Every structure is written in C-alpha cells, then in structure tokens.
TrEMBL record:
Annotated protein name in UniProt: Renin receptor
UniProt cross-references to InterPro entries, sorted A to Z: Renin_r_C (IPR056780), Renin_rcpt (IPR012493), RENR_N (IPR057318)
Top-level taxon of origin: Eukaryota
Lineage, opening ranks: Eukaryota, Metazoa, Chordata, Craniata, Vertebrata
Ranges annotated as spanning the membrane: 305-329
Function per UniProt: Multifunctional protein which functions as a renin, prorenin cellular receptor and is involved in the assembly of the lysosomal proton-transporting V-type ATPase (V-ATPase) and the acidification of the endo-lysosomal system. May mediate renin-dependent cellular responses by activating ERK1 and ERK2. By increasing the catalytic efficiency of renin in AGT/angiotensinogen conversion to angiotensin I, may also play a role in the renin-angiotensin system (RAS).
Localization in the cell: Cell projection, Dendritic spine membrane; Cytoplasmic vesicle, Autophagosome membrane; Cytoplasmic vesicle, Clathrin-coated vesicle membrane; Cytoplasmic vesicle, Secretory vesicle, Synaptic vesicle membrane
Subunit-structure text: Interacts with renin. Accessory component of the multisubunit proton-transporting vacuolar (V)-ATPase protein pump. Interacts (via N-terminus) with ATP6AP1 (via N-terminus). Interacts with ATP6V0D1; ATP6V0D1 is a V-ATPase complex subunit and the interaction promotes V-ATPase complex assembly. Interacts with TMEM9; TMEM9 is a V-ATPase assembly regulator and the interaction induces the interaction with ATP6V0D1. Interacts with VMA21 (via N-terminus); VMA21 is a V-ATPase accessory component.
Record's bilayer topology term: Single-pass type I membrane protein
UniProt GO molecular function: signaling receptor activity
Domain Renin receptor N-terminal: residue ranges: 18-267
C-alpha cells in the first residue's frame, strides 16, 4: 500500500500541463499572478481583449485585468509550440495552465483588424512552416516579401550566409536529419521575421495594430523521432527557449515597449469536437416568431450599446419636452409674445 501511495504521489507531481506564457507585455496590459486555467478555445478571445477589441462572449478568466481605455498594444505576437507542455522560460514571465488545447486560429482577430483599420496599413502575418500555411494582409506583403515560407525556401536559406546554423550550438542536432532540419527551419523563420521587423521600424509607428501568429511543429517531430528523453529533444528545447526569448525582446523593442508576446506550449492538440459546448442562443426557436415558448428575438453583442443610445436619447427628449411645456405654460402673452404685443398696439391706434 505504501509503495502504491508513493507511486500515485510521484505521478501526480510529474504531471506537466500545457501552458500559456506571456513573455512581454506593456505596463497598461496587466496579467495577474496565479494559476487560473484557460480553455484552449478561448485563446483567440484573450488575444482580442489584449489588443483592445471586443468579443462576442465575455471571457470569464481572472488572469487578465481590465486595461486602459486610451491605450492599446501596437502589436501582438502569438507563437504556438507543439510537442512540449512547457519550456524553460525566464521566471519573471506570467504562465497559466491551458485546458482542452484544441487547434485554434486568429482569423477572427485578423478580420477585426481588417474591418476597423481598412484605411490604414496593418501588418498581419499567420504562418505555419511545417504545413506551408501562410496568410498575409496589409503591409505584410511588403515587409515579408523576402521571407522564406516554404520548406524548400527555408532549407535553402539555411545554407546561406548568416543562417542560424552558424550561430546556434547544435550539439546533438544533425544537419542531415529531416526532423532536425524542420526544427532548425522554424528557428530560422523566427530569426528572419525579427530581422525584417528591425529593417522596417517605421511601420511600428502606424496607428493600426499588427498581428503575428506562428505555429511551430519541429519540436513535435524531434520528440516523435528521438523521444522526449533524448539529448536531441533536450538540446532543441533549450535552443527554442532562448530563441523565443530573443524574438520577444526584439519585437518588444521594435514597437517601443508596446507589444504583447505570448507563447502557447502544447504537448498534443486534442480533437476540436471532444468538448463542444452548445449555447441556448443557438436554439432555432429564439428567432422563430411563432415559438410557443414566447422567447425573445436573438440579438448580437452590440445590443447593450444600442440600448444605451436609445435610452439616453429618449430621456433627453423627454426632459426637453417638459422644459418647453413648462415655459409655455408660464408665459405672459401680453409681455412675452410678439403676436399679442403687436395686436394691442394696433387696437390702441384704432
């Protein structure tokens, strides 16, 4: 029994949860210290709120404090790392456990930026090198015109001068392994994005916020090839942790300490349908005028704004009618009205 208790205690201690880590954030974006879990499907809502945008459903998560109404970050960078639950990042960062890590995208945030800042020049970049998935919007097509995005282009970049192969301590990693090359290719992409942003610092002064979303799967391939306890995996995690910290510092510096850099570390993504919640607002009877339950019509998240506008406008009109009626009731026709005054003078002349 004692051995079984010790075994169970050891298993409980060694559990490593997936994490959301905030590497950099401005002073007006406050993340509270604590171990509040965040649902994986709520990561896009968290990114939207940190950028000062509204979301359709309130985020009931105490880790993010209320931000400033007059300041918003000029850029947000989110890096999703697959294959590891946590990285050895600096202790002064804010980390939170991640629950139900389903695959997510920042398409909703990118659409919000495109809608609100259509006349400006935002930089939106979403990239997954392992899947060769790329989305650019705004000035990103100009800034990252020379960025290698396909695996063939990135591997060709590794053989050029100034690549990470000449600056990183590879140790047990090999240049001839496909899994190692995929990992090093993603590290090279982070290095090139940082270098291109340093070259186009003038875009950081634009009023439109920028968005960067990267998904890295090289560490997952190394774990699948060598195992989690292999020296290759250990060396790769150390390299990635230092590269991510440098990338966060570079982005934070380019945008004048007005950028949020977050890292999501996920061992494996779960199927997106394993935990699907159904809201009562999805009921067909809500928008059905012939519903026998007398339910209200469906409304969107702008209802509160419209309600306040209509309410205070009605109050102002009602007060205006009361003031006008009061003054008309107490008016002296012979003194205040020009009509009666002219009539009296005409009678006297006659």
């Amino acid at each position: 029994t004692a051995k079984r208790r010790n075994h169970v205690w050891t298993c409980c201690v060694n559990v490593v949860y997936d994490q959301l880590t905030v590497l950099r954030s401005p002073q007006y974006v406050t993340f509270r210290e604590g171990q509040w879990p965040l649902a994986g499907e709520k990561v896009p809502d968290l990114v939207a709120l940190t950028m000062g945008f509204s979301v359709q459903e309130d985020l009931d998560w105490p880790g993010l404090a209320a931000g400033s109404l007059f300041q918003r970050p000029r850029a947000t960078a989110l890096i999703a790392v697959r294959g590891v639950g946590s990285l050895d990042l600096p202790s002064n960062t804010s980390s939170y456990p991640l629950e139900n890590p389903v695959p997510f995208t920042l398409d909703s945030v990118a659409n919000t930026i495109h809608t609100l800042f259509a006349e400006s020049t935002p930089v939106v970049l979403q990239l997954a090198p392992s899947e060769e998935r790329l989305y650019m919007m705004g000035m990103a097509n100009t800034v990252f015109e020379d960025l290698p995005v396909t695996l063939q282009q990135i591997r060709a970049r590794l053989s050029q001068e100034g690549s990470v192969l000449h600056s990183l301590p590879l140790h047990s990693l090999s240049r001839n392994s496909e899994a190692d090359l995929l990992f090093l290719s993603e590290v090279q992409v982070l290095h090139d994005i940082s270098a291109l942003l340093q070259r186009h610092k003038h875009l950081a002064k634009d009023q439109a916020p920028d968005l960067f979303s990267l998904e890295l799967a090289g560490l997952e391939e190394i774990a699948r090839r060598y195992g989690n306890d292999s020296p290759q995996f250990q060396d790769a995690t150390k390299i990635l942790a230092s590269v991510l910290q440098k990338f966060a510092d570079d982005v934070y510096g380019v945008y004048g300490n007005n950028a949020v850099v977050e890292v999501v570390t996920v061992k494996t993504f779960e199927a997106p349908l394993t935990r699907k919640s159904r809201s009562i607002l999805e009921s067909k009877q809500i928008s059905n005028p012939g519903s026998p339950y007398n339910l209200a019509y469906k409304y969107n998240f702008e209802y509160a704004v419209i309600f306040n506008i209509v309410l205070w406008l009605m109050i102002m009109l009602a007060l205006a009618v009361i003031v006008i009626a009061y003054n008309l009731w107490n008016m002296d026709p012979g003194y205040d009205s020009i009509i009666y005054r002219m009539t009296n003078q005409k009678i006297r002349m006659d």
